[in-house]
Amino acid sequence: MNVPEDLAYTREHEWARRKGSRVVVGITDFAQDQLGDVVYVELPAVGDEVKRGESFGVVESTKAVSELFAPVSGTVVEVNDPLVEAPEAVNEDPYEEGWMIVIEPSEPRQLEDLLTSAAYAGLLAEQD
Amino acid sequence: MSNPTGWKPSVGASPSAAAGAAGAGEPPGLGGAAPGLAHEEPLLFEHGSRGRCGVSLPAPVGPAPAAEIPAALLRGPIDGLPELSELEVVRHFTRLSTWNHGIDTGLYPLGSCTMKYNPRSSEAFARLPGFAGLHPLAPATHVQGALELMYRLERALSEIAGMSATSLSPAAGAHGELTGLMVIRAWHQSRGNPRRKVLIPDTAHGTNPASAALNGYTCVELASGPDGRLHPETVAAAMDEDVAAIMVTNPNTLGIFESHIAEIAAIVHGRGGLVYGDGANMNALLGVARPGDLGFDVIQYNLHKTFATPHGGGGPGAGPVAVTGALAPFLPLPMVVEDGPGFRLVTDPAERPGSVGKIHGFWGNFGMFVRAWAYLRELGPEGLRATAELAVLNAAYVRAGLSGAYHLPYPTDSLHEVVFDDQAQKAAGITTMDVAKRLIDHGFHPPTIYFPLVVHGALMIEPTETESKEALDAFIGAMRAIADEARTDPDRLRAAPLRAFRSRLDETRAARRPVLRWTPGMQAG
Amino acid sequence: MRYHPHTAADVQEMLAAAGAPSVDALFRSIPEPLRLARALDVPPALDEISLSRELGRLAARNEVSHPPFVGAGCYPHHVPPAVDQLLLRGEFFTAYTPYQPEISQGTLQALFEWQTFVCLLTGLEVSNASLYDGATATAEAALMATRITGRRRIVVSAAVHPEWRKVLASYLRSTHDEIVTIPFGADGRTDLDALRRSVDGAAAVIVGWPNFLGVLDALPEAAALAREAGALTIAATAEAVALGLIQPPGALGADVAAGSFQSFGNPLSFGGPAPGYLAIREAHVRQMPGRVCGATVDRQGRRGFALTLSTREQHIRREKATSNVCTNAGLCALASTIHLGLLGRRGLAELARLNFDRARLLRDAMAEVGVRPVFDGPFFNELALDVGDAEEVVARLARRGLAAGVPLSRWYPDAPWSRGALLSVATELHDPELIRLFARAVRP
After folding, report:
1. Of C339, C357, C392, which residue sits at a domain end?
2. Nearest Cα residue to B203 out of B259, B268, B247, B264
3. Whether residue C152 is found in the same domain as residue C241
4. What is the ipTM of this complex?
5. Listed residues C313, C339, C365: the one ending a domain
6. How buried is residue A67: exposed, middle or buried, by Cβ count under 10 Å (0-12/13-18/19+)?
7. What is the CATH number of the domain that holds C389?
8. Are residues C27 and C165 in the same domain?
């Protein structure tokens, strides 16, 4: 499984990438593999507030629905709208094209509580 | 992002490109599946010719409707509707039917669905003009036979459940759950507080939490124990004065009898709650044990499971709800009562002020009542008990026949159905989905798969009592052959079904780009 | 027992294989005190000949010698024998829900055709694979509207089927959504002024099309008011044959069409089963309750069908599902699909026209004996007639074996016209001679 070193992770398999003061969020390679073919992604609207550890949307395969959990609290400032029409990007390129939202964090220090790539890779090894 | 069912849907590329020649070189399936005269058939809307018609009607008389109906409200003939002769339509649906597998075609061991034989005599009786041609609002003197049938069915279902009264109105099992929970809510309400929570074990059908939510209840999931049973201490820990009810399927979806049910009921009753029974698996209990005697307050039947009314490719069903005397005043309307020499429908809420109201446009799915009553009368008390006994015997026989070939996640005794999983096939990279699809090549419908959710890669098998030992032997043989094949030729297995009218469908495509109706020049496929 | 194939030898062999000493031992997981120690108290078993006699006796206690002049949500129509004979194909009626698409293509293609028929007749974009009946379909439509709009109030016309409104009330009671009922006028059409006063903040406005009184209601006007207020319009139809003559809900501004297709291919059967339908605009598809069938391809690229968008449903989303519905009315939907296939473009137009003709004949025959319609709005095949004392007429004609209609006083006891109003239907089954006989019997 691909676990890029420059990202931070949640235990629920979301990744977070710093972009200036903001945080880009998506799901990991492991998550998309577990889910199988993603057929639908439901995302919040720009301007919505999200809270760390709480659901901000869902991702669906044909037989399962999984909630998406925010890695940090803040305001949604960008949404990857093309995913609604082309959810396959989540499978094909989870770390780039498959990004989901950008958050303007209200408590930037929460980023430090996320898992490092090494810790996340360790978590995956345990699950195996 | 866990995936508890073990279901990882992905059609992807076919692992065996040779599957293009479906069925070629395949040995005949053990259940007799063989390539037949499978005709391709377009949609109704894709053939025919302008002006053709398949009905014969009297000619209209009198002036055009435009004389009375405003022109803006009138519509002309609807473009897109088919234009076919009667034979074309008959041939169309006959061909379509041959692409289906039904109980009449072969063994259909779908767990928790009770796919038993649907008697032909029941079909004939439901079609008697006195039943099929009867209007629900015909004068009371015209409908006495129908009311008598409903009355006697209601009495019998109450006796079989060990309950006081039964509403026949619900149109399906989930509709019965909804109704039963409405009754529970109304009972609590009558005591001042409707309460807010419903306890549901993790083995429950998805309809249980959905029905509870539709009733405005919050669901609390209870973990079943390592033996597949719900344990009293789990219930006691979750039970409080805000719990309206617990919903228990007994036997549960692992086919295991909840043997602590009396104790669980006492715990729930002790804190003012009620016990709801999902009667999907009543086939295991007919004449052996009665939900009312086990501590249940409400239970819904599925006449299309236990009482052999046909599933019809997804309905119609009937989900009568039986309740204790304390809850009877809250049942929906109508109820049928004796009235002098005849029978009468109680429809006026003034007569039953506690009633939750109406839940069906008329009186329920009467056509199913006729079929169920005919079935019940043919069986009688001994036949009902024999039904449960033979259903359990058949399941036990299949369980014994498959042990060793498939992993049994819960070794606890099971009743009318048994749940295996794909753990023994994992090393070969074979999943429950592959096993299910390969069964089709052997001429059998697959079991229920990936349910219950507590079993990763579940294969849930319910043979029912109407299958013979020979049919079960053939099924066991096919399942064992597939287990062997998982070791010897896994690629072939992953390409299954090879002999079906269609190979695996691209469900991802169906969901990503939904095409839900025909339109001129339709492209999908 | 013909349904139990087991011989005594089979039972012994099977018990041996299962390692059980007796059939009773198979039930050892049920604690002894919980078992039933006696035989069930149900009637004794019958052989098939006695069973036929018994069911025949019950059927004979029902009076069905003439087609009833009763509609009111369940309509007497001719069902071509081809429909029922095809339904008896065991591959159709003994199949389960098509969860295994490779061996369910027959059911699936027929459902896809059903969905297309529902869309063509209602003028809407997406249909599900059926619901229990017209009443529950309307209730599900209302619940869907609350999810889509985030509002909790449902405005319903008093001219919507009263039994359907009762079901709506039962469904909404537990979710605490509010129902506001608005009256209708002397023409039998929804009072638009009253609607205007109630529509603000509503999730949906429900109007019958045609309505319970048989009248072609003010659907376009109601839909315009609803749209202005941000509410959805639900057109509720019990007599779907009308959609072969009158404009479809989708063309008149409705966002949702709900109702019954019983009139196509399904017998009266004392009120059930019959297929409920629900059609919507595509934008709302993820809020739609119930199963839906979609087109796709198999691994060889051949067209096929499968249930899709299942993540809305209870078996996956559980308590967050759009509905708890599972088993629906599949075989009834198939009956409608076959009947509509036979009718087709020309047959449906002819059938609808014929129904209107017969109702007009009924009105004219009644006028000859001095009986007038209660409402003056346009009708399709059903109308309320002022017969003086409707209950008396129903009782009197019942003695002659005729089901005359239903007295509207049962649902509108306080209306000034209530006592005389008899709701009667005339369809292709009521030939002109029978209609004239009926009229003469009402006013001898």
Report:
1. C339
2. B247
3. yes
4. 0.98
5. C339
6. middle
7. 3.90.1150.10
8. no
Best mutation target, A39, A58, A91, to test chain B (most B CBs within 10 A): A39
Q: Is C56 part of any domain? A: no
Cβ distance C111 to C333 under 8 Å? yes
Place C324 in a pLDDT band, splitting at 50, 70 and 90. Answer: confident
Chain B residues in contact with A30 by the CB 8 A cut-off are 1
Q: Do C126 and B517 touch (CB under 8 A)?
A: yes
> Can you tell me the mean pLDDT for B120-131?
98
What CA–CA distances, in Å, run from C401 to B140, B143, C68, C166, C443? 12, 11, 9, 30, 16
Q: List CB contacts (< 8 A) between B90 and chain C.
A: 82, 86
Instruction: Tell me which residue in A27, A34, A37 faces B3 most closely, judged by beta carbons.
Output: A34
Domain extent at residue C29:
8-51
Residue among C6, C47, C78, C103 with most chain B CBs within 10 A, to mutate? C103
Inter-chain residue contact B10 with A36, CB threshold 8 Å: yes
pLDDT value, residue B24 = 45
* Structural domains in chain C (count): 3
B506 and A35 Cβ atoms separated by less than 8 Å? no
Q: Count, in order, helices (H) and strands (E) of chain B.
A: 15, 12
Query: B25-61 b/e with 16+ CB inside 10 Å = b?
Result: ebeebbbebeeeeeeebebbbeebeeebbbbeeeebe
* Nearest C-alpha in C relative to B305: C96
Residue B437 Cα distances to A62, B443, B480, B487, angstroms: 17, 10, 14, 16
Question: Tens digit of pLDDT for each residue in C227-272?
Answer: 999 999 999 999 999 999 999 999 999 999 999 999 999 999 999 9
Q: From chain B, pick out residues whose CB is under 8 angstroms from the CB of C328.
A: 172, 314-316
| Residue C73: inside a domain | no
C128 lies in the same domain as C145: yes
CA distance to partner chain B, nearest, from residue C196 (Å): 22
* Residue A34's CATH number: 2.40.50.100
- Yes or no, beta carbons of B392 and C351 under 8 Å apart: no
What the block records as the tokens of B324 is 């204790």
Residues B397, C18: contact at Cβ < 8 Å?
yes
| Residue predicted with more confidence, B158 or C318 | B158
DSSP state of B59: P
Q: Is there a domain that residue A6 lies in?
A: no
Substitution target from B44, B211, B513 for chain C, most C beta carbons within 10 A = B44
Number of domains present in the structure of chain A: 1
- Give me the helices (H) in C131-204, please: 134-149, 162-175, 192-198
Is residue C86 located within the same domain as residue C39? no
Residue of A nearest to B8 (CA): A36
Cβ <8 Å between C331 and B316: yes
Angle at alpha carbon of residue B173, lines to B317 and B157, rounded to 5°:
85
All domains of chain B, ordered by start, with CATH? 124-377 (3.40.640.10)
Within this chain, do residues C352 and C277 fall inside the same structural domain, yes or no? no
For residue C154, being part of any structural domain is answered with: yes
User: How many Cβ pairs closer than 8 A exist between chain B and C?
Assistant: 708
Q: Which domain holds residue A33?
A: 14-120
Q: Assess whether C299 and C366 both reside in one domain.
A: no
Whether residue C319 is found in the same domain as residue C370: no
pLDDT tens column, C411-434:
999 999 999 999 999 999 999 999
Residues C279 and C425 in one domain: no
Q: How confident is the model over B351-380, as pLDDT tens digits?
A: 999 999 999 999 999 999 999 999 999 999
**In angstroms, what separates the C-alpha of B2 from chain A's closest C-alpha?**
7
A60–C311: do the CB atoms touch at under 8 Å? yes
Does the beta-carbon distance from C3 to B119 stay under 8 Å?
yes
Q: A63 and C310 in contact by Cβ < 8 A? A: yes
Return the SS3 of B101: coil
Residue C359 lies in a domain: yes
Instruction: Quickly tell me which residue has 């019950």 as its tokens.
Output: C58
